[in-house]
Structure formats: C-alpha cells, structure tokens
Design a protein that fits this description.
The complex is a heterodimer of chains A (about 375) and B (about 525).
Chain A (H helix, E strand, L loop, with lengths): L2 H6 L13 H9 L1 H23 L11 H27 L7 H17 L2 H6 L7 H24 L5 H19 L6 E2 L4 H8 L1 E2 L16 E2 H19 L1 H11 L1 H6 L4 H27 L1 E2 L7 H11 L11 H20 L4 H31 L1
Antiparallel strand pairs in A: 1-4, 2-3
Helix pairs in contact in A: 3-15, 4-10, 4-11, 4-13, 4-14, 4-15, 5-7, 5-8, 5-13, 7-8, 7-13, 9-13, 10-11, 11-13, 14-15, 14-16
Chain B lengths: L5 H10 L6 E10 L2 E11 L4 E5 L6 H8 L7 E6 L2 E3 L4 H6 L2 E4 L11 H5 L6 E2 L2 E2 L1 H14 L17 H14 L4 E5 L7 H16 L3 E5 L3 H7 L2 E6 L2 E7 L5 H9 L17 E9 L6 E6 L3 E6 L5 H8 L7 E6 L2 E3 L4 H6 L2 E4 L3 H5 L6 H6 L7 E2 L2 E2 L1 H14 L16 H14 L4 E5 L7 H16 L3 E5 L3 H7 L2 E6 L2 E7 L5 H9 L3 H9 L1
Chain lengths: ~375, ~525
C-alpha cells in the first residue's frame, strides 16, 4: 500500500498473469465491492427463508416460488431500479438528483395524457391519440425536459445540486398536477396495448420446472425493460467517453476541467439522462396502475438513492457502477419482499429502508476515509 | 465596570512586564524529504525591528510557525528572559506575549470588526455583550494608531480586505499586550497609503519597546524599516547582523549563496520558429505581459510565490479569463476560452498542485493518462479499450512509472510517479506547447533527474516548453531563456548565457525597474 513498496516493485506487469486461478479471476471480474453485495444478498435470503423460521415467523418458505420471484419481486424492483440507474450517473459525477420521483409523476401524467388525448399536454399536442409509441416517447421526452431544467439550474445558476433538485422535487410534483385535467388521474384502462407494458410476460412457454409448487409464469416485460436499460447504461458508463467524463468529474472536478472536459455540458447531459429514465419509469407506472396519476412517483427517490449508495457509490463522487446499483436494487427489493412475506407492516419497512440508507452511506464514508488514509501514508 | 479607555489600557499593557529577551537556540525541524530548519540560533530584542529574509522554502515560515506554537521544533529551545519555554499551541504563545500576523489571519466572517478583535474576551454586563463599551474601546485604539479611516468598525468579517484583516489581527495582538510581534509579508496586498500607515504603526510599537520581526521579500522596505537582518538559506541561518553593514548585492548573494549547480543541458539549441507569442496581455492578475516561446525551446518563468506565474499559465490555458491582449499560436491569433479549446489547439498544462488540479486520485493510472485524448481514443464516442490500454501502457513504460498495473488508482503511487502520470497524459496528447508548473515539486532527487532528461528530450522533438519553477538551479540548468515575473508583470528577460541566480533574484524582488537594472548589472 505504501509508496515505498510501490517504488520497489518492478515496472508495469500485466494485470492478469496466467498463473492466477479461476476463482480469483472470477472474483476480480465481479469486483470486491460487488462480491460483498452478493454475500449480503445471500445472507438476506437466508434470513428470510431459514432464520425467520427459528423465531417462529411464518411466510419465509414462500420466498422461493415462481409466484413470489417472478410476480412480486421482479415487478417490484423495476421502478426503483430504473430511477436508481439514472441516479447512479448523477451520483458518480458527485451530484444528486432528488427530483426523480416527481419527474416520474410528470412522465406518468404526460404519457397517459397523450394516449387519452386529454389534459394540458394531450389537448394541445399534435401526437395522435391511442398510439402507444407516441405515449411512451412523450413520457420520456417530458422527463428529459425536466432534466434539462435541473441541469441548467445546477450549471448556469450554480445552485448546489441537492438544493436545486429539492426545489424541483416540489416544483415538478406541482407541475404533474397542473398537467392533469383538474389535477385528477387520467385513466388508460381502455388501452390494453399500453397496459401490456406492465402486465405482459415473455418466455411463458419456456420449459422451466415449477418452483415452490407454482408453475413457471414467464418473465414480466417490465423486468426485461429494466435489464435492457441497465445494460445500455452499463455500456454508457464503462465504455464511452461520456462515462469517463462522469467518473472524472466526480473524482476531481478541477482536474477534469484542466484536462479539457466541458463540465457544464456533461452535467446537463447527465441530468437529461436521469430525467429521461425517470420519465420512462413514469410511463411504466401509468401502465401498471392503469392511470396517469400525479402522485404515481411520490417517494421513489429515497429508495433509488439508497440503492445507489448501497451499490458502492461514493458520496464524494468518482466511484460506483451500474452493476453495483443493480445488485443493490435487488437487495432493497428482497428486503421489502421478505418483510412483506413475514408480515411486517409498512411502517416497520419504512424504518428499515431509512436505516439501510444511513448504513449504506456510513459504509461508503468509512471506505472513503480508509482509502484517504491509505493514500496519505 | 469602569469604562477603561484604550490609552490607559495600552499604558497598562506597557506596564505589564514585557519580555526583555527572546532567544531561539539551536532549533531544528524536519519534514518528510526536507530539513526545514537546521540548528538555527538567534536573538530578538525589544525596541528593534529584525528583518527575516530568504528564498522561498528557506525556512522563514517554519520558524514563525514554531514561534507561534503551530509547529514544535524537533530539537533546540526557545528562551524567554533566559528561561526555556514551550508553546504547544498558538494560545500559549499569545499568553507569553508572542504574536505572529500571517497574511491571511483567521477572521470570523459574520461578525463585525469590534467583535472580531475582542473575540473570546468580549466585555459583558450580566452575561450580555456590552456593545457600547466594546465599540468605544475599538474606536479609540484605532484612532490612536491612525487607522480609523482604513478600518471602519461596522464592517463584517467577510467584507474586509486582506489589509484590513491583518489590521484586525494586529489589534487583537495589541489589546492583549504583545512583546514580540512577527509580521509575515504584511505589505504584499497593501496599497502605498496603507503601507505608510503600517510602517508608522510598526515604528511606534518599536519605540514602545515591542520586538518586531518583519518578513518581506522587498529589499526597499527592509531598508526603510529594519535595524538588523537575519538571512536564512536552506534551513540554516546565514547571517545575523546590523542591516547598515550590508549592501543590497550582499543580501542577494547571501540569500542565493549555494554553489551554482551543475548544468543540466549540454548545449542550448534554439530554433527561430516561434510557436507561442503573447502580446500585451492584461488580466485580473497581470499587467502588460509579452513573451514568446520558440519550437524546441525551454523557457523558464521565475519569480517569487505570488508573482502571477501560475495564473499566467492558467490564462494562456483558458482556465482563467484575460481582459485584453493577443495570444498568437503558430502565427495565428487565437481566442482560447476553456482548457478544452486549449488542448484542441495543441497546448498542454501540468498544474502545480497535482493532487488537487492534476490527477483524479481514485481513478486508475490508465484513465488519468488517457483523459485529455479521449476523443482520439474513441470512435463515435465509444472508447477503443484495447487502443487506450496500449497507449497508456506505452507512456507508462516510456516514463518508467512504477506501478503494479495501469489499473492501479493513481493516488496509491508515490509523488514522483504521480507526476510522471501527469506528464504521460500530456506526452500522449502530443502538444505543440507544454506548460509545466513546478514540475519537480515534492518529488525525490532520482525522479527529478528523470523528469529533467524527459524535458530535454521533449525539447528535441521541437515542443515549445514553458517551465514555471521556484527552484533557481533547475531554471538556470534547463532553460534556454528566463522570464522573471514580479507582481503580475514581467520584470526582465535573461538569456541562458547571462543568467545567474543573483540576477534572477534581483529581478524577482526589486520594487521598481530602475533598481532591477542596477542590480542585474552589478
């Protein structure tokens, strides 16, 4: 670790020498941070399925069934997952986007409004009604516009990202109501192609044996969307110049600027991405709840931010991956799901979520200070 | 209870037993990689102004910090009236009557001048601050020293200029009775008017029997004000004698003193193709800067800390704005508004503070190397991973960066290797002009030699190199030409053949150009 041992090392050696064993190579590929997430997930599942029984709690045995895994769990993580993926980009860049829940509400109202041809947007827009494609695009675009606004407030007005998006959290929540006719939800129950986005399933015919006494039901289309978006964002963060710029800005803003990175452009782009994904989450919320409701997105930001920090992102920025966030989203999902199965009420679940956020950030801080100490040596 | 007036207060202070002698005996202090003070002994007498002089890094600041209780000496002692004392913290030094006034003293931003001066000892009535008494006291003491117009008492801490902050700090020292007052380059941010007032105050305090230590780079000021002079060089005390016995050139020679180190470059190979030319540049920090750099030339920028060299580099690199003037790159006038544009036009800049401005410590050696050329390493903004790794690895090997792999976070490397990663970044960018700000600061001798060799090699490839350095041997050894800056201006240009440490230092310290010419030719 210390500088002196570094100096005594020979010159550059290849990262992967042939002598390294397979197990170590797999562990390297996963990364130590993600490995500890997988271990945490395994412990959590054990607690739910086995340990809970020792304390006389019922319901843990229902965890491993297709009904639970493919219906409850896989669908429950999608909205938080999407928001967390967009949030990861922002947090890695050393900023924060608290407004994602309200942006999702806007996406929800706008997509339903375009689909039904009512409300502020649907009334004035040139989108054809009853067209699922345009409804989805409109929801995403609305989210991106919200992102542009966040980005401009942070870059042009130089407002601290936490304050800026706290402000827009409130403002966008209001706008979602203003966009709905008389502030009331817009029903989309009559558009089965649209609600299929949330209720549809794929691979129903796959030859997979029953689990927990329940037959294979296929994978929810929602979950497929989440995985697809996660892959796109993973590529964006790991293999593009934009991703590099995000890590650089989060790691050291001054150094990134002096290395030629245009801070404002990257920051606006990251809020647009975060907003766009939140808009998509809103569209899916409309499809799932069968209405474009201005309260659809309320409260999701907390779970999303929790998942990003739990996934290994540093509060100071410059660190964090989509893979880590994805694993953390599953952990948050399993925690909620397990507590439901075991019969904990929602208030207890809220306490658990709050503690998880604090715990995740505490661990992240501890890691950062340990690394800072290692550097100082 | 009884409103004590300030004049009686200060009379009280002078009645309080003043230190009769302060002696520093055989003090040494080392930091990693540097012996900041080496066996320094001197005495400080009441009723005298003692000048402290020395180059950047000679040990003046360390000595002041030991006197103020900020640092503890490794060995040696401080004696007050013959009794050894220790100052574990600034408060204990203040209690003994020793005060060091730094250039940027601690000021509470949201309270006004009287409260800033009396912080911690506010006069009270039944637990409430007695504002009337407080304001009266402060107003009287300011009037006594002639500062009532310079330091309006209703200003808040965050509205004060540097000069006013120093005054607040001096007033804090006076109100609690001071025996030894040290001023660290107090005039660097003052106007002429303020300087005159400050000198009046300092002389008055001397006449009252206060011992004054005056640190400054300005020879003329030292001449006007001081009685004795202590010159430090490389942590050692070179001389301690009455100022009247020394000429200006004696002082400069003693400050420089060391053997002129071996010449780094064999032959000066200047080309005549000008790559970068700057004409009449003005900015917040600069007045009328003109210079040029030819292809294959290493041009040194010398000057004292605060002369505006780093800021000049940042103005040229587009990180700071300029107000007027031309920047001509390869014959074409350019308007660079951001570092990104500068890099695209072929300028590289390795900043002085590599941890804060140069590197992204938590990211890998590879990412830090490739960051300035991401565009070249990508296709449709997708990074070409194999190419990136190849480029990064080749420069890491070329510069012999010691690292287990290019994946290693750069923060885990030693200082010299970190600096090499910064250089690797700019070599990979293949700039036409490379600006290096203190490229060898804080790195060991071996790495320094490697960096010198590298600069020479870059010059041979016809890159125009600007090297800002406070280490004179390095500038004299490497540079083909030297520009010397002082206070935002270029005060002189020296060709390699005529440059000496004395001439450079004289240009860096003089208060006006006529003295510069005088000293440079002496």
């Amino acid at each position: 670790m210390s500088a002196t041992t570094q100096d005594s090392l020979p010159k550059v050696t290849p990262a992967r020498s042939p002598g390294v064993g397979l197990g170590r190579r797999i562990a390297n590929a996963i990364g130590s941070d993600n490995l500890s997430l997988l271990i945490a997930l395994a412990i959590l599942v054990l607690l739910i399925t086995v340990v809970s029984g020792w304390f006389g709690m019922d319901g843990g045995d229902k965890f491993f069934s297709w009904q639970n895994l493919m219906n409850s769990l896989a669908q429950a993580i999608v909205i938080v997952g999407l928001l967390a993926i967009g949030e990861t980009v922002v947090i890695v860049a050393g900023a924060l986007d608290i407004s994602v829940g309200s942006v999702a509400s806007i996406g929800s109202v706008v997509s339903a409004s375009v689909l039904a041809g009512t409300g502020a947007v649907g009334g004035l827009m040139f989108f054809p009604t009853d067209n699922v494609f345009f409804a989805v695009v409109a929801g995403i675009l609305a989210g991106m516009v919200a992102g542009v606004i966040n980005g401009l407030i942070v870059t042009v007005l130089r407002v601290n990202p936490i304050i800026a998006t706290l402000g827009t959290l409130a403002a966008f929540a209001g706008i979602a109501f203003l966009l709905a006719p008389d502030g009331k939800p817009i029903g989309v129950v009559t558009q089965p192609e649209f609600t299929w986005l949330a209720q549809g399933r794929l691979f129903q015919d796959a030859p997979i044996p029953p689990l927990g006494g329940v037959a294979w039901t296929g994978v929810p289309f929602l979950t497929i969307i989440l995985i697809f978006v996660a892959i796109i964002f993973h590529i964006l963060m790991a293999y593009t110049t934009f991703g590099r710029s995000i890590y650089a800005i989060g790691g050291n803003e001054n150094a990134a600027r002096l290395a030629g990175i245009n801070l404002n452009r990257v920051r606006i782009m990251m809020y647009v991405l975060s907003g766009g994904v939140a808009g998509l989450a809103g569209v899916l919320l409309s499809a799932r709840t069968t209405s474009g409701n201005p309260i659809n997105g309320v409260g999701f930001e907390l779970q999303a931010i929790t998942a990003v920090f739990l996934g290994g992102a540093a509060t100071a920025g410059g660190k964090g991956t989509i893979v880590g966030t994805f694993l953390a989203v599953i952990i948050v999902g399993v925690l909620n799901n397990g507590m439901n199965l075991l019969g904990f009420n929602t208030f207890v679940q809220r306490v658990a979520l709050g503690l998880l956020l604090i715990g995740a950030v505490a661990i992240s801080q501890w890691r950062q200070s340990r690394e800072a100490k290692a550097r100082a040596k | 209870m009884v409103a004590t007036t300030v004049s009686s207060k200060s009379a009280e202070t002078s009645r309080k037993k003043r230190i009769q002698s302060l002696e520093i005996r055989k003090i040494s202090k080392a930091f990693p990689n540097i012996q900041a003070l080496n066996d320094v002994s001197l005495d400080i007498r009441p009723g005298e102004i003692l000048a402290f002089m020395g180059e950047n890094g000679a040990g003046k600041s360390t000595l002041l910090k030991i006197l103020n209780g900020d640092y503890q000496p490794d060995s040696g002692s401080i004696l007050i009236d013959g009794q050894p004392v220790t100052f574990p913290n600034p408060h204990s030094a203040h209690k003994a009557g020793i005060r060091v006034i730094y250039q940027e003293p601690e000021i509470i931003p949201w309270v006004d001048v009287p409260e800033n001066i009396w912080v911690g000892e506010l006069p009270r009535n039944l637990g409430f601050v007695n504002r009337g008494k407080l304001n009266q006291r402060v107003r009287e003491s300011l009037t006594e020293y002639g500062f009532e117009n310079i330091l309006p008492i209703d200003l808040m801490g965050n509205q004060l200029s540097s000069a006013q902050k120093q005054l607040v700090e001096i007033m804090r020292a006076l109100k609690s009775g001071v025996s030894v007052l040290a001023l660290d380059e107090p005039t660097s941010s003052l106007t002429d008017e303020e300087v005159t007032r400050l000198f009046t105050l300092v002389r008055k305090l001397r006449d009252e029997g206060v011992a004054i230590i005056y640190v400054s780079h300005r020879l003329n000021e030292i001449r006007r004000l001081c009685d004795r002079i202590a010159i430090l060089r490389d942590g050692k005390l070179i001389t301690l004698q009455p100022l009247s016995e020394l000429t200006q050139s004696d002082i400069v020679r003693m400050m420089v003193g060391r053997e002129i180190s071996e010449v780094f470059r064999g032959d000066s190979r200047r080309t005549t193709r000008t790559v970068l030319e700057v004409k009449n540049l003005h900015s917040n920090w600069h007045r009328d800067i003109s210079f040029h750099v030819n292809a294959g030339e290493i041009v040194g920028f010398s000057g004292l800390v605060g002369a505006g060299r780093t800021e000049l580099a940042k103005v040229i690199f587009g990180a700071f704005p300029r107000t007027s003037g031309q920047v001509i790159l390869e014959g074409k006038e350019t308007n660079i508004r951001s570092p990104g544009e500068a890099i695209m036009k072929g300028i590289g800049f390795a900043p002085e503070d590599r941890k804060r401005e140069g590197l992204i410590l938590i990211r890998s050696v590879m990412e830090n190397t490739s960051i300035a050329i991401l565009r070249q390493l990508s296709r449709l903004s997708f990074l070409r991973g194999a190419l990136e790794r190849k480029v990064a690895t080749s420069y890491v090997e070329k510069l012999r960066v010691v690292t287990p792999s290019v994946e290693q976070p750069v923060g885990k490397l030693s200082g010299g290797n970190q600096q090499k990663v910064v250089l690797a970044r700019w070599l990979a960018a293949k700039p036409k002009v490379l600006i290096l700000d203190e490229p060898t600061r804080g790195i060991d001798v071996g790495a320094k030699a490697e960096i010198y060799a590298l600069l020479e090699e870059l010059a041979k490839q016809d890159i125009a190199i600007i090297m800002i350095s406070s280490e004179l041997p390095e500038i004299l050894g490497l540079a083909d030409r030297i520009y010397v800056m002082q206070n935002g201006r270029i005060t002189g240009e020296l060709a390699r053949e005529e440059a000496t440490e004395e001439k450079v230092l004289a240009l860096a310290m003089v208060d006006n150009l006529s003295v510069a010419g005088d000293a440079a030719t002496s």
